[in-house]
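Q&A log
Question type: sequence-to-structure
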Amino acid sequence: MRNILVALSLLLLSACAGAGMDGLFGESAPPAAPPAQAAAPPVPVTLPPPPTAAVKVALILPLSGTDAAFGKSLQHAAELAVMDIGHGAFELMPRDSRATPSVARDAARDVLARGAQIIVGPLYSGSVAAVKPLAAAAGAPVLALSNDATVAGGGAWLMGFSPVEQVRRVASHAAARGIRNIAVLAPSTLYGDLALAALKQSDAGMNVVALARYRDSDAAIAAAVASIAGNRRGAQALFLPEGGALLRKIAARLARHGMAAGRMQLIGTGLWDDKDVAADRNLWGGWYAAPDPAPRAGFARRYAKNFGARPPRLASLVYDAVSLAAALAGKGVAPPYTEAALTRPDGFAGVDGVFRLTSRGVAERALAVMEISRGRARIISPAPKRF
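Response status: OK
Response body:
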């Protein structure tokens, strides 16, 4: 690999402690100078350049209202990233969006007027859409926390986990295991639409032999499950892009029709990356794609030690975004956030694994394939270490 990955994760950051900012980019120290010769003439002293002004990085999150506690927990992740990077060329500028597009827009206007060179956040797609034009006019990229592809591009990159990538990864794994014919039970939502389209368009060559969609009602779910159960002839697996309590309710109905994971291969998305899902016996043996959990474990321990609670799932996105911004700022290159710097082909190594920002405005991630096994998820196909 020609370029060196930027080391943003807690584990790699720890490994670079004491090595200065060059260590974050994996650059080796210069060789030691040879012993001075007695007859050598004096070497002119070159004074270091004066310290550069701090790079200002805005953080726009819901810090008041109904989402205040969640927003504050994400702010803690940003603060942890600043502590771990530990250099003075970086200033974090937190602002409240109140989960409202107009307030997020005002917050963006304020930080840009004060010299912000990059924005981390907002959280919700409506606020991202409101902020993006102002940031683009100021030449400040946006590292948004949404996964809504409709607001990607135009100077905004989505750090959120994409269901499209997850489906492609697990479908490729299924195809490698000889699965080609698949039944689909998907919600009648935008998420369900994206997941179904990704399955059909993947390079895995999946053949959808049965399809049922449902809305969030007991009657609709019962009818969809019955339809799949009666029309699954030839299906080698069932794709179920659902999560949380609704997934567990559907799994119970599937079990009554003889379609629990032990009898048919169930395949999900990153929504399955949940301890309550792993505890459901009807889903044991199911597959889904998600980041390798090992790098995130160190981040979670550090977060808990500093803030007295476990981080929410999206906290790692904030940590990686702020770490990326801080690491590029520490390189001392002006301007630090060019498109070329942000979209380097080799990407970055974060606490959710290797990722890179693409020209489409999304974060492409190297994902593992997980299998639910006796109440926990285990890796059955490791995440790639590089692109």
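Response note: The radius of gyration is 24 Å.
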